[in-house]
Design brief:
mainly beta, Neuraminidase, four-stranded antiparallel β-sheet, about 45% strand, globular
Length: about 350
């Protein structure tokens, strides 16, 4: 992500405990189930990212692509080799996302400032090269940048912007906008305005429901998706506030499993929350050995490994190793849904 953990760390366990009680009138069965769930967290061989983000599992290449926003790099974790390949692109010190392009195994789109940029990379070399600018939003808003972005099952790009962290507290101003890109018309379509930090996004397997996080809203919202890809019918799935107060984290990136449960990364919370998308109940707390958990994506040969990105950048307090590492979570007993390349045709 990009954000500053909010709230103190002293009362974190107490506040989280209070938060969970909001979702369960009779906490004991769910609580016991969550505690007993067996999963394994493994650090993978990869560089420690300044601000790791954007995990995208490519089924064909059996690889996880992700980016380091302020490290200015793109990465490919090769499942078979258990090795991560890293590259930079000259002239692009900040990279917000990376998504493979349909029908061209060397082409990827990346987020650069407020642009969607096409690059060429063989997945192994230490340098990728600029091809062209696909499109640009908010040309006069120099204090903004793209943040999280993903592609739906029809190959349509969705992504949003935020004010740069260096410009002040993320909760101060809502200057971001959430878009989809119409490749045939070559234009961005505005879906939602007055965004604080445009962040986690995912669709259910049928593609008719869309889930979205504006980190500054401290919640996850559900929308219905029409044939054009536009969204409507906003519903709050889960609100992470505790008695109206901010929790000691902000929700960041997000993914979904084949059963429709959401996996919400918490920046400042050392946790990925598994959330029932229908009831809003927290079904599992997946604990990571670092505070700034940024995003998650299912991958692996059976789509049953949850890959998690993290950040080492010091926003409010030092982040010792393994902060910034890439992690694999196994033993969750669920499968994810496929991720898709972008269709620029």
């Amino acid at each position: 992500m990009h954000s500053v953990p909010v709230g103190g760390s002293v009362d974190r366990s107490k506040r989280l405990k209070r938060h969970h009680s909001l979702h369960r009138a009779k906490p004991s069965p769910d609580k016991q189930k969550r505690k007993m769930a067996s999963y394994k967290v493994e650090q993978l061989p990869s560089p420690l990212s300044v601000l790791g983000e954007g995990p995208h599992w490519d089924v064909e290449r059996q690889s996880l692509y992700y980016n380091d926003i302020y490290g200015g790099s793109i990465h490919r974790y090769d499942y078979a080799e258990n090795k991560t390949y890293n590259a930079t692109i000259d002239g692009f010190p900040v990279i917000s996302f990376i998504i493979p392009v349909k029908d061209n195994e060397r082409h990827f789109i990346i987020g650069t400032d407020r642009k969607v940029t096409l690059v060429d990379w063989d997945g192994r070399s230490e340098k990728a090269t600029f091809v062209r600018t696909v499109g640009e939003v908010e040309p006069t808003m120099e204090d903004n940048r793209f943040n999280d972005a993903k592609v739906d099952s029809k190959g349509r790009f969705y992504g949003g912007t935020m004010r740069l962290e260096a410009k002040g507290d993320i909760f101060e101003m809502r200057l971001g906008t959430f878009y989809r890109y119409d490749a045939k018309q070559g234009k961005f379509v505005t879906l939602k305005q007055k965004i604080g930090v445009s962040n986690g996004l995912c669709w259910n397997e049928a593609g008719n429901l869309f889930y979205y996080i504006d980190s500054c809203d401290l919640d996850v919202k559900e929308y219905q998706v029409d044939a054009n890809g536009d969204i409507s019918g906003e519903r709050v799935v889960i609100d992470f506030r505790v008695n109206g107060e901010r929790p000691p984290f902000v929700p960041d990136g997000m993914t979904i499993d084949a059963n429709g449960s959401l996996y919400v990364a918490t920046f400042g919370g050392s946790t990925v929350y598994k959330v029932n998308s229908k009831t809003g109940k927290v079904e599992l707390e997946i604990k990571l050995p670092c505070e700034q958990v940024t995003s998650a994506a299912f991958g692996g040969p059976n789509l049953d490994i949850l890959y998690v990105t993290t950040a080492a950048k010091e926003f409010k307090s030092p982040q010792p190793a393994p902060a910034g590492a890439l992690f694999a979570v196994t033993g969750l007993g669920v499968k994810g849904t496929p991720m898709y390349p972008v269709d620029l045709s």
